[in-house]
Write a structure and sequence with these properties.
This protein has two domains: 4-207, Alpha-Beta Complex (Spore Coat Polysaccharide Biosynthesis Protein SpsA, Chain A), CATH 3.90.550.10; 219-297, no CATH class. 29% of the residues lie in helices and 24% in strands. It has helices spanning 12-24, 60-74, 95-102, 164-170, 182-192, 219-235, 237-245, 291-297, and strands spanning 4-8, 32-37, 50-54, 80-84, 88-89, 108-117, 120-125, 139-141, 149-151, 159-163, 196-207, 249-250, 258-259, 261-263, 270-272, 278-279. The strands form three sheets. Strands 1, 2, 3, 4, 5, 6, 7, 8, 9, 10 and 11 form an eleven-stranded mixed beta sheet that branches. Strands 14-15-16 form a three-stranded antiparallel beta sheet, with helices on one face. Helix 6 (219-235) packs antiparallel against helix 7 (237-245). The chain is globular, with a radius of gyration of 19 Å.
Length: 305
C-alpha cells in the first residue's frame, strides 16, 4: 500500500486530470487522499478514496502534513507515501521505479521522478535545486539522460516518494515555511541524519511547474517570507538581517529563485550571489563570520553529475 496525497486549492479541473492520470496509469496505488485546502467550492472525485476539506488555505506544507497524518491514522501499514502537486500528470509505469530505487538501499528518505513540461516534451528537468533557495533546475535532452539515478542534496517535492520510517523518526514538513523551501528543509534534515535523496531518471512525469501557486496575488511576498524562515533556521539571524536590509530580486515571476546577496565583511560591499555584481549599498550589520562563509559551510549546492 502506497497512499498518494494530492493538494488542491481552487483548481478542481487540474486536480481531476491529475487523479485521472493516476487511475489510468500502469502503476499500482491505493489510496488517493485529496486535501482541499481552503477551496471556494471543494469538488469530490470518484477516483479519490478520501477527501479532506479545510475552510481556509493551509499552504503546501500544512496541507500535505494533514494528508500524511490522515494516512498514518487510517492506513497505518504503509511504508512509503507519495506527495503530489495537482499540476502533475503521470503515465505508464511511473511509481514502481521510485519504489524500486527507494528499497534498493538502506536509509533512502526521498525519491522524485524527472519531469517534462507540456510545451517542451523533449527537455527533461532534474528536480533538484542548483541554488539552495530553489528554482533553476538543470535539464537534459530526453534522449541524452546519462543516469538511471542521481544522488542529490535537495529535492523538489512536486512529486516525491517519502519513507515512512524517515518521517516517523525525523518529522514532517516544517510548517513555518508555508509554500516554499520546506522541501529543501526536509532534504537537508535527511542529509544531516545520513539519509539519501535520489532523482529517479527512469520515471518521468508531466509537471505544470508553478500552476498550483499562480492563484496567489502575493506570491512574491510569500516566497520572501518562506525564504526568510528557511534562512533563519539554516544560517541563523545574521543572514536574516542581510536580506531584511537588501530587497530580494525575483528573476522569474513564478519560481522561487531570487538574487542571493552577501556582504564583504572587510569592505562592506554587497554582492549579488548569481551575477557577482557589486551593489553600492552599505548595510548596518554587525561584523563576524561572513554570510558567504556561512552559506558555503553548509555545502548545500546540489551536485547531479
Amino acid at each position: 500500500m502506497i497512499p498518494i496525497v494530492i493538494g488542491n486549492y481552487n483548481k478542481p479541473e487540474m486536480t481531476e486530470k491529475c487523479i485521472h492520470s493516476i487511475q489510468t496509469s500502469d502503476s499500482n496505488y491505493n489510496p488517493v487522499i485529496q486535501v482541499d485546502n481552503g477551496c471556494e467550492n471543494p469538488k469530490l472525485f470518484s477516483y479519490s478514496n478520501d477527501h479532506l476539506i479545510f475552510n481556509e488555505p493551509l499552504g503546501f506544507s500544512k496541507a500535505y502534513n494533514e494528508g500524511i497524518r490522515y494516512a498514518k491514522k487510517n492506513y497505518p501499514d504503509f511504508d512509503y507515501i507519495v506527495l503530489m502537486n495537482n499540476d502533475v500528470e503521470v503515465e505508464g509505469n511511473w511509481l514502481e521505479p521510485l519504489v524500486s530505487l527507494a528499497t534498493s538501499e538502506e536509509k533512502v528518505a526521498a525519491v522524485a521522478p524527472c519531469f517534462y513540461q507540456e510545451k517542451d516534451e523533449q527537455s527533461i528537468w532534474i528536480p533538484t535545486h542548483v541554488d539552495i533557495l530553489g528554482g533553476k533546475q538543470p535539464k537534459e535532452n530526453r534522449y541524452m539522460l546519462k543516469y538511471d539515478k542521481m544522488s542529490v542534496n535537495t529535492l523538489q517535492f512536486f512529486c516525491v516518494l517519502l519513507s515512512r520510517r524517515f518521517l516517523d523518526d525525523y518529522g514532517l514538513l516544517d510548517e513555518s515555511m508555508e509554500n516554499y523551501c520546506s522541501d529543501m528543509d526536509m532534504s537537508l534534515r535527511a542529509g544531516l541524519a545520513g539519509w539519501k535523496r535520489y532523482v529517479c531518471c527512469t520515471s518521468i512525469v508531466k509537471h505544470g511547474l508553478g500552476k498550483t501557486v499562480r492563484e496567489f496575488k502575493d506570491e512574491k511576498e510569500r516566497i520572501v517570507r518562506d525564504q526568510q524562515a528557511f534562512l533563519i533556521k539554516w544560517t541563523g539571524d545574521y543572514f536574516n538581517r542581510i536580506i531584511q536590509h537588501i530587497p530580494l530580486y525575483h528573476n522569474q515571476p513564478y519560481k522561487a529563485w531570487v538574487g542571493f546577496y552577501y556582504m564583504n565583511e572587510t569592505t562592506g560591499e554587497v554582492t549579488n550571489w548569481h551575477t557577482g555584481n557589486i551593489i553600492n549599498h552599505k548595510s548596518q550589520i554587525e561584523h563576524g563570520v561572513s554570510a558567504r562563509e556561512k552559506y558555503e559551510s553548509l555545502q548545500r549546492l546540489s551536485k547531479y553529475d
